[in-house]
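User: I'm preparing a small set of examples for a lab meeting where we compare how different chains pack in three dimensions. I only have the primary sequence for this one, and I'd like the structure in token form so I can line it up with the others. Please keep the answer compact; I'll paste it straight into my notes.
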Amino acid sequence: MFGYRVPAPDEAMLISGGRRGLGGAPFRVVTGHGKFVLPVFRKVRFLTLSMCESEVVETCVTKQGIALHVRAVIAFKVGNDTESIINAGQRFLSDQDQMSVLTGRIFAGHLRAIIGSMTVEEIVTERQKLAAEVLDTSKMEMAKIGLIVDSLQIQSIDDGDTGYIDAMSAPHKAAIQRQAQIAQAQANQAAAEAEQDAARKQAEYARQTAVVKAEYSAEVDRAQAHAAQAGPLAQAHAQQEVLAAQTELAQRQARLRQQQLVAEVVKPAEAEAERVRILAAAEAQRMKIQAEAAASYDRVALDRMLIDQLPQIVKEAAGGLSGANVNVLNGADGLGEIAAGLVAQGLTILDSVRQNLNGQGGQGGRNAGSSPEQGNGRLELQGPRPSESDAGQTGRGDATAG
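Assistant: Understood. Below is the structure token output for the 402-residue chain.
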């Protein structure tokens, strides 16, 4: 639209004519928005708000009297506030390039003053401190002309031909060189150790490889030897199996022959022996029966003879009592008891003789019949006569004989 003006984002629009600006300024400041400006009656000018640069190259003398050539770069701009824009517009609106020239001169003066109060060592080692002090001393002065400094960088410091900085840096250079040499020696040592380690690893690998090869070779040799022995071993095993089969066959033949011998010789011999034993047993039994029969016949004959002799035995026993002093207490009954006792005594003698004959066997029976005592068919009974004391006892129903 005709008469409507808008400043750029990095510009301030200054409108002169008409009303006065803030603080009695001869113009009004417009930033960030447009403004309707009457043509002919109003005049518009633009002031840059962008970053500007100023370079300072100055020879400064230090506190030690050593001349240093210092090069610095200053980054500055017009302040964003209305007061700073008014101050800068009144001073640099017609020639805005003068801002860099004036800023360089201002900082050159402050730089000389600050370096004059410092030593070379401080300047070289504490450049940031130098820049901070220069900024602090120039801040108020720059604010008066509407400028603000964003940064100050000391680019280089040179002492020319004096060699002070080189001399100052010599120990550091020597230390650095020494450290570099140490580092190089350590690097060489590390390289040598790495080479030795690599050589050891290669040797170890070669040794392991040789061991593995030897093991493989030994295994191959064993396999070949086993393969070479496989044939003879198999043949030997086969022969051993044949011998075992032959041995088993021979054992079976021997057992078969033994069975044949048992069937042909032992069994018939045992049968014959059994037959002979049975015959012998039968013969022995026959002879025993005959002997028992003969013995029985002899006993029967002896019994008959004893029976025949019994009256004589009783008679002899009674004869033994003829001279005895016998008192009969109960008359006829007492005599009967005495007679019965004589008969019983004779029977007892007869039974004793029979038992003795049975214990002596067959030959005793036969020989007993021909003894002198029995040849005449008599048995003698002898004994002591009873004493007078015994004969004189009374009151009993029996008789006592000697």
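A couple of notes for your slides: The CA atoms of residues 169 and 175 lie 10 Å apart. Confidence is low (pLDDT under 50) at residues 361-402.

User: Perfect, thanks.
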